Amino acid sequence: MQNTIGKLDSFFKYIVVGLLGFAIVLSFQFRIVALTHKKISFVIMVILLLAAFLILNIWLFIFQKVANKKLTMLFLILVIAAPRLLWVFLMPTKPVSDYLCFYSYAQKASQGFLKGYDMTFTLFRFRFGYSLILAHVFKIFGSSIIVGKLFNVFLSVILGLIIYFTVDYLFGKEAATYSAVLYAFWPSQIMYNSVLASEHPFIVFFMLGLYFLIRAIKEKKAIFGLFAGVFVAIANHIRPVAVVIIIATVFLFALKALCKDFKNLKIAILSIISYVVTFYTLGYLIFCLTGIPVWKTSMGLNLMIGTDYTTYGMNNPKHSLFVKTYGYDFQKMHGEAMKIGLERLRKETRKFIAILPRKHAIIWGDDSFGYFWSTFRVYKATPFVNLVKNHPTIFYVFSQLYYYVILIYIILGILSSKRNANKEIFLLLDLIFLGYVALHIFLEVQPRYHYPTIFTLFLLSGQGVKWLREKFKRF
Protein backbone atom coordinates (compact mmCIF):
# COMPACT_ATOMS: atom_id res chain seq x y z
CA MET A 1 0.00 0.00 0.00
CA GLN A 2 2.72 2.47 1.01
CA ASN A 3 4.55 1.68 -2.22
CA THR A 4 1.42 2.53 -4.26
CA ILE A 5 0.85 5.76 -2.30
CA GLY A 6 4.53 6.64 -2.75
CA LYS A 7 4.34 6.16 -6.52
CA LEU A 8 1.18 8.24 -6.79
CA ASP A 9 2.74 10.94 -4.63
CA SER A 10 5.82 10.99 -6.88
CA PHE A 11 3.64 11.24 -9.97
CA PHE A 12 1.40 14.02 -8.67
CA LYS A 13 4.16 16.04 -7.03
CA TYR A 14 5.96 16.57 -10.33
CA ILE A 15 2.69 17.77 -11.86
CA VAL A 16 2.28 20.22 -8.94
CA VAL A 17 5.90 21.43 -9.30
CA GLY A 18 5.38 21.90 -13.04
CA LEU A 19 2.17 23.88 -12.55
CA LEU A 20 3.73 26.15 -9.92
CA GLY A 21 6.81 26.77 -12.07
CA PHE A 22 4.55 27.39 -15.06
CA ALA A 23 2.60 29.94 -13.00
CA ILE A 24 5.78 31.93 -12.27
CA VAL A 25 6.83 32.00 -15.93
CA LEU A 26 3.32 32.92 -17.13
CA SER A 27 3.14 35.60 -14.47
CA PHE A 28 6.30 37.21 -15.87
CA GLN A 29 4.67 37.20 -19.29
CA PHE A 30 1.12 38.29 -18.50
CA ARG A 31 0.64 39.66 -14.98
CA ILE A 32 3.60 42.02 -14.45
CA VAL A 33 2.63 44.18 -17.44
CA ALA A 34 -1.08 44.05 -16.53
CA LEU A 35 -0.35 45.20 -12.97
CA THR A 36 2.35 47.82 -13.51
CA HIS A 37 1.47 48.93 -17.09
CA LYS A 38 5.20 48.75 -17.75
CA LYS A 39 7.18 46.26 -19.76
CA ILE A 40 9.89 44.92 -17.47
CA SER A 41 12.34 42.60 -19.19
CA PHE A 42 12.36 38.93 -18.31
CA VAL A 43 16.08 39.09 -17.45
CA ILE A 44 15.56 41.94 -14.97
CA MET A 45 12.69 40.08 -13.30
CA VAL A 46 14.84 36.94 -12.96
CA ILE A 47 17.68 38.99 -11.42
CA LEU A 48 15.26 40.65 -9.00
CA LEU A 49 13.80 37.25 -8.10
CA LEU A 50 17.24 35.77 -7.41
CA ALA A 51 18.12 38.80 -5.28
CA ALA A 52 14.86 38.50 -3.32
CA PHE A 53 15.48 34.78 -2.85
CA LEU A 54 19.02 35.42 -1.55
CA ILE A 55 17.97 38.23 0.80
CA LEU A 56 15.10 36.23 2.24
CA ASN A 57 17.35 33.21 2.78
CA ILE A 58 19.93 35.29 4.64
CA TRP A 59 17.20 36.85 6.80
CA LEU A 60 15.63 33.48 7.65
CA PHE A 61 18.97 31.85 8.46
CA ILE A 62 20.00 34.75 10.71
CA PHE A 63 16.62 34.70 12.43
CA GLN A 64 16.94 30.98 13.14
CA LYS A 65 20.24 31.58 14.92
CA VAL A 66 19.19 34.52 17.07
CA ALA A 67 15.64 33.40 17.90
CA ASN A 68 15.01 32.57 21.54
CA LYS A 69 13.32 29.17 21.50
CA LYS A 70 11.55 29.79 24.83
CA LEU A 71 9.92 32.96 23.53
CA THR A 72 9.13 31.68 20.03
CA MET A 73 5.33 31.79 20.43
CA LEU A 74 5.28 35.29 21.88
CA PHE A 75 7.70 36.53 19.23
CA LEU A 76 5.66 34.99 16.40
CA ILE A 77 2.46 36.58 17.70
CA LEU A 78 4.17 39.97 17.80
CA VAL A 79 5.79 39.76 14.35
CA ILE A 80 2.52 38.60 12.80
CA ALA A 81 0.37 41.23 14.52
CA ALA A 82 2.71 44.26 14.35
CA PRO A 83 2.95 44.85 10.57
CA ARG A 84 -0.76 44.10 10.14
CA LEU A 85 -1.78 46.55 12.86
CA LEU A 86 0.53 49.16 11.36
CA TRP A 87 -1.03 48.75 7.91
CA VAL A 88 -4.60 48.73 9.26
CA PHE A 89 -4.12 52.04 11.09
CA LEU A 90 -2.10 53.73 8.35
CA MET A 91 -4.23 52.63 5.38
CA PRO A 92 -7.88 53.78 5.90
CA THR A 93 -9.38 51.33 3.41
CA LYS A 94 -13.02 51.91 2.53
CA PRO A 95 -15.27 48.86 1.97
CA VAL A 96 -16.44 48.55 -1.63
CA SER A 97 -18.09 45.93 -3.83
CA ASP A 98 -18.58 42.58 -2.03
CA TYR A 99 -16.76 43.92 1.02
CA LEU A 100 -19.34 46.69 1.41
CA CYS A 101 -22.11 44.07 1.17
CA PHE A 102 -20.48 42.04 3.96
CA TYR A 103 -20.07 45.09 6.17
CA SER A 104 -23.54 46.51 5.56
CA TYR A 105 -25.30 43.23 6.25
CA ALA A 106 -23.18 42.50 9.34
CA GLN A 107 -23.89 45.97 10.70
CA LYS A 108 -27.66 45.53 10.35
CA ALA A 109 -27.58 41.89 11.49
CA SER A 110 -25.77 42.94 14.69
CA GLN A 111 -28.85 45.09 15.40
CA GLY A 112 -31.28 42.24 14.77
CA PHE A 113 -32.12 42.79 11.09
CA LEU A 114 -31.24 39.35 9.76
CA LYS A 115 -33.34 38.98 6.62
CA GLY A 116 -31.53 38.99 3.29
CA TYR A 117 -32.45 42.54 2.28
CA ASP A 118 -29.56 42.67 -0.20
CA MET A 119 -30.79 40.73 -3.26
CA THR A 120 -27.28 39.53 -4.12
CA PHE A 121 -27.35 37.44 -0.93
CA THR A 122 -30.18 35.37 -2.39
CA LEU A 123 -28.02 34.61 -5.45
CA PHE A 124 -24.72 34.02 -3.65
CA ARG A 125 -25.87 32.43 -0.42
CA PHE A 126 -22.43 31.72 1.01
CA ARG A 127 -22.20 35.46 1.75
CA PHE A 128 -24.23 34.91 4.91
CA GLY A 129 -21.43 32.86 6.50
CA TYR A 130 -18.84 35.59 6.93
CA SER A 131 -21.44 38.33 7.40
CA LEU A 132 -23.04 36.53 10.36
CA ILE A 133 -19.64 35.89 11.96
CA LEU A 134 -18.82 39.58 11.57
CA ALA A 135 -22.25 40.49 12.95
CA HIS A 136 -21.48 38.62 16.19
CA VAL A 137 -18.17 40.48 16.50
CA PHE A 138 -19.97 43.79 15.91
CA LYS A 139 -22.58 42.91 18.53
CA ILE A 140 -19.85 42.55 21.16
CA PHE A 141 -17.39 45.28 20.17
CA GLY A 142 -19.48 47.71 18.12
CA SER A 143 -19.99 47.98 14.37
CA SER A 144 -17.16 50.35 13.51
CA ILE A 145 -15.15 49.34 10.43
CA ILE A 146 -11.96 49.35 12.50
CA VAL A 147 -13.46 46.56 14.63
CA GLY A 148 -13.75 44.37 11.54
CA LYS A 149 -10.18 45.16 10.56
CA LEU A 150 -8.84 44.36 14.03
CA PHE A 151 -10.80 41.10 13.87
CA ASN A 152 -8.85 40.37 10.67
CA VAL A 153 -5.58 40.88 12.55
CA PHE A 154 -6.76 38.53 15.30
CA LEU A 155 -7.63 35.89 12.68
CA SER A 156 -4.22 36.39 11.03
CA VAL A 157 -2.48 35.63 14.33
CA ILE A 158 -4.61 32.50 14.79
CA LEU A 159 -3.77 31.41 11.23
CA GLY A 160 -0.06 31.96 11.85
CA LEU A 161 -0.22 29.73 14.93
CA ILE A 162 -2.15 27.04 13.02
CA ILE A 163 0.56 27.10 10.34
CA TYR A 164 3.29 26.87 12.97
CA PHE A 165 1.76 23.91 14.83
CA THR A 166 0.88 22.04 11.63
CA VAL A 167 4.37 22.39 10.15
CA ASP A 168 5.92 21.55 13.54
CA TYR A 169 3.80 18.37 13.63
CA LEU A 170 4.97 17.37 10.13
CA PHE A 171 8.58 18.57 9.93
CA GLY A 172 9.72 19.91 13.31
CA LYS A 173 10.20 23.28 14.99
CA GLU A 174 12.88 24.61 12.64
CA ALA A 175 10.69 24.24 9.55
CA ALA A 176 7.69 25.55 11.52
CA THR A 177 9.55 28.71 12.49
CA TYR A 178 10.59 29.34 8.88
CA SER A 179 7.00 28.96 7.63
CA ALA A 180 5.58 31.17 10.39
CA VAL A 181 8.10 33.97 9.77
CA LEU A 182 7.53 33.75 6.00
CA TYR A 183 3.82 34.16 6.67
CA ALA A 184 4.39 37.01 9.14
CA PHE A 185 6.03 39.24 6.52
CA TRP A 186 4.00 38.15 3.48
CA PRO A 187 3.12 41.54 1.87
CA SER A 188 -0.26 40.66 0.35
CA GLN A 189 -1.39 39.00 3.57
CA ILE A 190 -0.37 42.07 5.58
CA MET A 191 -2.15 44.52 3.29
CA TYR A 192 -5.31 42.45 2.92
CA ASN A 193 -6.01 42.88 6.64
CA SER A 194 -7.51 46.31 5.98
CA VAL A 195 -10.15 44.69 3.71
CA LEU A 196 -13.33 43.19 5.21
CA ALA A 197 -13.06 39.98 3.20
CA SER A 198 -14.52 36.53 3.81
CA GLU A 199 -11.14 34.89 3.15
CA HIS A 200 -9.91 35.80 6.64
CA PRO A 201 -12.20 33.52 8.69
CA PHE A 202 -12.53 31.06 5.79
CA ILE A 203 -8.85 30.17 5.67
CA VAL A 204 -8.66 29.82 9.47
CA PHE A 205 -11.42 27.19 9.52
CA PHE A 206 -10.08 25.62 6.32
CA MET A 207 -6.56 25.20 7.72
CA LEU A 208 -7.89 24.08 11.10
CA GLY A 209 -9.88 21.36 9.32
CA LEU A 210 -6.76 20.38 7.35
CA TYR A 211 -4.70 20.24 10.57
CA PHE A 212 -7.09 17.76 12.19
CA LEU A 213 -7.36 15.75 8.97
CA ILE A 214 -3.56 15.44 8.86
CA ARG A 215 -3.52 14.25 12.46
CA ALA A 216 -6.34 11.80 11.76
CA ILE A 217 -4.40 10.25 8.86
CA LYS A 218 -1.06 10.07 10.67
CA GLU A 219 -2.33 8.93 14.08
CA LYS A 220 -5.27 6.89 12.71
CA LYS A 221 -7.63 8.46 15.27
CA ALA A 222 -11.22 8.89 14.16
CA ILE A 223 -11.89 11.71 16.66
CA PHE A 224 -9.56 13.98 14.67
CA GLY A 225 -11.51 13.09 11.53
CA LEU A 226 -14.67 14.24 13.27
CA PHE A 227 -13.11 17.63 14.11
CA ALA A 228 -11.83 17.93 10.54
CA GLY A 229 -15.33 17.45 9.13
CA VAL A 230 -16.79 20.07 11.49
CA PHE A 231 -14.25 22.78 10.63
CA VAL A 232 -14.35 22.15 6.89
CA ALA A 233 -18.17 22.38 7.00
CA ILE A 234 -17.93 25.76 8.75
CA ALA A 235 -15.42 26.91 6.13
CA ASN A 236 -17.75 25.72 3.39
CA HIS A 237 -20.50 28.05 4.63
CA ILE A 238 -18.08 30.95 4.19
CA ARG A 239 -16.75 29.92 0.78
CA PRO A 240 -18.17 26.81 -0.96
CA VAL A 241 -14.83 25.77 -2.46
CA ALA A 242 -13.84 24.26 0.91
CA VAL A 243 -15.63 21.11 -0.23
CA VAL A 244 -12.55 20.29 -2.35
CA ILE A 245 -10.83 19.15 0.86
CA ILE A 246 -13.59 16.56 1.36
CA ILE A 247 -13.40 15.45 -2.27
CA ALA A 248 -9.61 15.03 -2.01
CA THR A 249 -10.05 13.06 1.22
CA VAL A 250 -12.60 10.73 -0.36
CA PHE A 251 -10.27 10.21 -3.32
CA LEU A 252 -7.33 9.40 -1.01
CA PHE A 253 -9.27 6.87 1.06
CA ALA A 254 -10.78 5.35 -2.09
CA LEU A 255 -7.24 4.71 -3.33
CA LYS A 256 -6.38 3.09 -0.02
CA ALA A 257 -9.50 0.92 -0.19
CA LEU A 258 -8.62 -0.19 -3.73
CA CYS A 259 -5.28 -1.33 -2.33
CA LYS A 260 -7.22 -3.30 0.32
CA ASP A 261 -6.16 -0.97 3.14
CA PHE A 262 -9.30 -0.44 5.23
CA LYS A 263 -7.60 0.72 8.44
CA ASN A 264 -8.62 4.36 7.93
CA LEU A 265 -12.12 3.66 6.62
CA LYS A 266 -13.60 4.64 9.99
CA ILE A 267 -11.81 8.01 9.80
CA ALA A 268 -13.13 8.67 6.29
CA ILE A 269 -16.71 7.78 7.19
CA LEU A 270 -16.70 9.82 10.40
CA SER A 271 -15.15 12.83 8.63
CA ILE A 272 -17.82 12.80 5.93
CA ILE A 273 -20.67 12.27 8.41
CA SER A 274 -19.48 15.11 10.67
CA TYR A 275 -19.08 17.35 7.61
CA VAL A 276 -22.60 16.62 6.32
CA VAL A 277 -24.26 16.93 9.75
CA THR A 278 -22.45 20.18 10.59
CA PHE A 279 -23.05 21.68 7.15
CA TYR A 280 -26.79 21.06 7.13
CA THR A 281 -27.24 21.92 10.81
CA LEU A 282 -25.59 25.29 10.29
CA GLY A 283 -27.49 25.71 7.04
CA TYR A 284 -30.78 25.16 8.82
CA LEU A 285 -29.86 27.64 11.57
CA ILE A 286 -28.96 30.28 8.96
CA PHE A 287 -32.25 29.50 7.18
CA CYS A 288 -34.18 30.09 10.43
CA LEU A 289 -32.44 33.45 10.86
CA THR A 290 -32.55 34.71 7.28
CA GLY A 291 -35.27 32.78 5.49
CA ILE A 292 -32.78 31.76 2.75
CA PRO A 293 -32.01 28.03 2.16
CA VAL A 294 -28.23 28.45 2.01
CA TRP A 295 -27.61 24.76 1.33
CA LYS A 296 -29.00 25.33 -2.16
CA THR A 297 -26.10 26.71 -4.14
CA SER A 298 -25.20 26.87 -7.80
CA MET A 299 -22.06 27.57 -9.78
CA GLY A 300 -23.96 28.56 -12.92
CA LEU A 301 -22.77 32.18 -12.97
CA ASN A 302 -19.28 31.11 -11.95
CA LEU A 303 -19.10 28.77 -14.94
CA MET A 304 -20.39 31.46 -17.30
CA ILE A 305 -17.74 33.92 -16.10
CA GLY A 306 -15.00 31.27 -16.10
CA THR A 307 -15.66 30.34 -19.74
CA ASP A 308 -15.83 33.95 -20.94
CA TYR A 309 -12.75 34.18 -23.17
CA THR A 310 -13.26 37.93 -23.69
CA THR A 311 -12.44 38.60 -20.01
CA TYR A 312 -9.99 35.69 -19.50
CA GLY A 313 -12.42 34.11 -17.05
CA MET A 314 -12.52 37.13 -14.73
CA ASN A 315 -15.55 39.01 -13.45
CA ASN A 316 -16.62 42.05 -15.45
CA PRO A 317 -19.34 44.76 -15.15
CA LYS A 318 -21.26 43.06 -17.97
CA HIS A 319 -21.74 40.03 -15.72
CA SER A 320 -23.40 42.26 -13.12
CA LEU A 321 -25.82 43.45 -15.80
CA PHE A 322 -26.59 39.81 -16.61
CA VAL A 323 -27.54 39.22 -12.97
CA LYS A 324 -29.92 42.20 -12.97
CA THR A 325 -31.54 41.04 -16.22
CA TYR A 326 -33.09 38.07 -14.40
CA GLY A 327 -34.39 40.12 -11.50
CA TYR A 328 -32.22 38.29 -8.96
CA ASP A 329 -34.16 35.08 -9.55
CA PHE A 330 -31.86 32.33 -8.23
CA GLN A 331 -33.08 29.48 -10.45
CA LYS A 332 -33.44 31.47 -13.67
CA MET A 333 -30.19 33.39 -13.40
CA HIS A 334 -27.94 30.45 -12.49
CA GLY A 335 -29.80 28.13 -14.86
CA GLU A 336 -29.37 30.42 -17.85
CA ALA A 337 -25.75 31.16 -16.91
CA MET A 338 -25.03 27.43 -16.74
CA LYS A 339 -26.47 26.97 -20.24
CA ILE A 340 -24.29 29.76 -21.63
CA GLY A 341 -21.16 28.33 -20.00
CA LEU A 342 -21.79 24.80 -21.27
CA GLU A 343 -22.64 26.12 -24.73
CA ARG A 344 -19.31 27.98 -24.89
CA LEU A 345 -17.43 24.83 -23.92
CA ARG A 346 -19.22 22.90 -26.66
CA LYS A 347 -19.18 25.40 -29.53
CA GLU A 348 -16.19 27.65 -28.78
CA THR A 349 -13.76 25.11 -27.38
CA ARG A 350 -10.68 26.51 -29.14
CA LYS A 351 -11.24 30.05 -27.87
CA PHE A 352 -11.74 28.68 -24.35
CA ILE A 353 -8.56 26.58 -24.48
CA ALA A 354 -6.61 29.60 -25.78
CA ILE A 355 -7.25 31.57 -22.56
CA LEU A 356 -6.19 28.80 -20.15
CA PRO A 357 -2.55 29.98 -19.81
CA ARG A 358 -3.79 33.46 -18.86
CA LYS A 359 -6.31 31.99 -16.42
CA HIS A 360 -3.53 29.94 -14.84
CA ALA A 361 -1.35 33.06 -14.52
CA ILE A 362 -4.20 35.10 -13.00
CA ILE A 363 -5.11 32.69 -10.21
CA TRP A 364 -1.77 31.00 -9.43
CA GLY A 365 0.80 33.61 -10.48
CA ASP A 366 -0.69 36.86 -9.18
CA ASP A 367 -0.41 38.03 -5.58
CA SER A 368 -1.59 41.59 -6.16
CA PHE A 369 -4.92 41.39 -4.33
CA GLY A 370 -3.56 42.72 -1.02
CA TYR A 371 -2.25 45.97 -2.47
CA PHE A 372 -5.08 46.43 -4.98
CA TRP A 373 -8.03 46.02 -2.63
CA SER A 374 -6.50 47.80 0.36
CA THR A 375 -5.76 50.91 -1.73
CA PHE A 376 -8.70 50.80 -4.16
CA ARG A 377 -10.83 53.20 -2.08
CA VAL A 378 -9.72 55.06 1.04
CA TYR A 379 -11.49 57.42 3.43
CA LYS A 380 -8.81 60.10 3.37
CA ALA A 381 -5.56 60.89 1.61
CA THR A 382 -2.82 60.98 4.25
CA PRO A 383 0.91 61.35 3.44
CA PHE A 384 1.30 57.58 3.89
CA VAL A 385 -1.67 56.84 1.62
CA ASN A 386 -0.30 59.18 -1.05
CA LEU A 387 3.14 57.57 -0.81
CA VAL A 388 1.70 54.07 -1.24
CA LYS A 389 -0.81 54.92 -3.97
CA ASN A 390 1.65 57.00 -5.99
CA HIS A 391 4.13 54.12 -6.30
CA PRO A 392 2.04 51.09 -7.33
CA THR A 393 4.84 49.53 -9.39
CA ILE A 394 7.10 49.21 -6.34
CA PHE A 395 4.39 47.55 -4.26
CA TYR A 396 3.18 45.27 -7.04
CA VAL A 397 6.69 44.09 -7.91
CA PHE A 398 7.61 43.68 -4.23
CA SER A 399 4.46 41.62 -3.59
CA GLN A 400 5.08 39.48 -6.65
CA LEU A 401 8.73 38.81 -5.82
CA TYR A 402 7.89 37.72 -2.28
CA TYR A 403 5.16 35.44 -3.61
CA TYR A 404 7.49 33.91 -6.23
CA VAL A 405 10.02 33.13 -3.49
CA ILE A 406 7.30 31.41 -1.48
CA LEU A 407 6.40 29.30 -4.52
CA ILE A 408 10.08 28.38 -4.90
CA TYR A 409 10.26 27.31 -1.25
CA ILE A 410 7.13 25.20 -1.75
CA ILE A 411 8.70 23.58 -4.82
CA LEU A 412 11.87 22.84 -2.82
CA GLY A 413 9.72 21.42 -0.02
CA ILE A 414 7.98 19.10 -2.49
CA LEU A 415 11.19 17.97 -4.20
CA SER A 416 12.98 17.33 -0.89
CA SER A 417 10.23 14.99 0.32
CA LYS A 418 11.48 11.78 -1.33
CA ARG A 419 12.49 10.03 1.88
CA ASN A 420 9.95 11.68 4.15
CA ALA A 421 7.49 9.52 6.09
CA ASN A 422 4.52 11.75 5.25
CA LYS A 423 3.69 10.20 1.85
CA GLU A 424 -0.06 10.11 2.47
CA ILE A 425 -0.04 13.72 3.67
CA PHE A 426 1.91 14.89 0.62
CA LEU A 427 -0.52 13.05 -1.63
CA LEU A 428 -3.47 14.71 0.14
CA LEU A 429 -1.95 18.19 -0.29
CA ASP A 430 -1.24 17.47 -3.96
CA LEU A 431 -4.82 16.29 -4.49
CA ILE A 432 -6.26 19.43 -2.88
CA PHE A 433 -4.13 21.66 -5.12
CA LEU A 434 -4.89 19.70 -8.27
CA GLY A 435 -8.59 19.69 -7.39
CA TYR A 436 -8.58 23.49 -7.25
CA VAL A 437 -6.61 23.72 -10.49
CA ALA A 438 -9.11 21.45 -12.26
CA LEU A 439 -12.06 23.36 -10.83
CA HIS A 440 -10.79 26.79 -11.88
CA ILE A 441 -10.02 25.70 -15.40
CA PHE A 442 -13.78 26.09 -15.88
CA LEU A 443 -14.80 28.52 -13.14
CA GLU A 444 -14.16 32.21 -12.57
CA VAL A 445 -10.63 33.22 -11.61
CA GLN A 446 -9.36 36.05 -9.43
CA PRO A 447 -5.88 36.39 -7.87
CA ARG A 448 -7.33 36.02 -4.36
CA TYR A 449 -8.92 32.68 -5.25
CA HIS A 450 -5.56 30.97 -4.80
CA TYR A 451 -5.79 31.76 -1.09
CA PRO A 452 -6.81 28.29 0.26
CA THR A 453 -4.65 26.17 -2.03
CA ILE A 454 -1.44 28.15 -1.70
CA PHE A 455 -1.86 28.02 2.07
CA THR A 456 -2.32 24.25 1.79
CA LEU A 457 1.00 23.93 -0.05
CA PHE A 458 2.54 26.64 2.16
CA LEU A 459 2.86 23.95 4.84
CA LEU A 460 5.79 22.66 2.75
CA SER A 461 7.59 26.02 2.51
CA GLY A 462 9.43 25.75 5.84
CA GLN A 463 10.62 22.27 4.91
CA GLY A 464 11.96 23.75 1.66
CA VAL A 465 13.93 26.40 3.59
CA LYS A 466 15.16 23.78 6.08
CA TRP A 467 16.35 21.50 3.26
CA LEU A 468 18.13 24.41 1.55
CA ARG A 469 19.90 25.39 4.77
CA GLU A 470 21.09 21.80 5.26
CA LYS A 471 22.49 21.86 1.72
CA PHE A 472 24.33 25.12 2.40
CA LYS A 473 25.89 23.66 5.55
CA ARG A 474 27.73 21.07 3.44
CA PHE A 475 29.68 23.71 1.57
UniProtKB/TrEMBL annotation:
The keyword Cell wall biogenesis/degradation does not apply. PANTHER family: MANNOSYLTRANSFERASE YKCB-RELATED (PTHR33908), MEMBRANE PROTEIN (PTHR33908:SF11). The keyword Transmembrane applies. The lineage of its organism: Bacteria, Bacillati, Bacillota, Bacillota incertae sedis, Caldicellulosiruptorales. Its main location: membrane. GO terms for molecular function: glycosyltransferase activity. The chain crosses the membrane at residues 12-34, 40-62, 71-90, 119-138, 150-171, 191-214, 226-255, 267-295, 393-413, 425-443, 449-468. Keywords: Cell membrane, Glycosyltransferase, Membrane, Transferase, Transmembrane, Transmembrane helix. It is found in: Cell membrane. It is an enzyme of class 2 (transferase). InterPro entries: LipidA_mod_glycosyltrf_83 (IPR050297), RgtA/B/C-like (IPR038731). This is Glycosyltransferase family 39 protein. It is a multi-pass membrane protein. Residues 131-272 form the Glycosyltransferase RgtA/B/C/D-like domain. It comes from the Bacteria. Its EC number is 2.4.-.-.
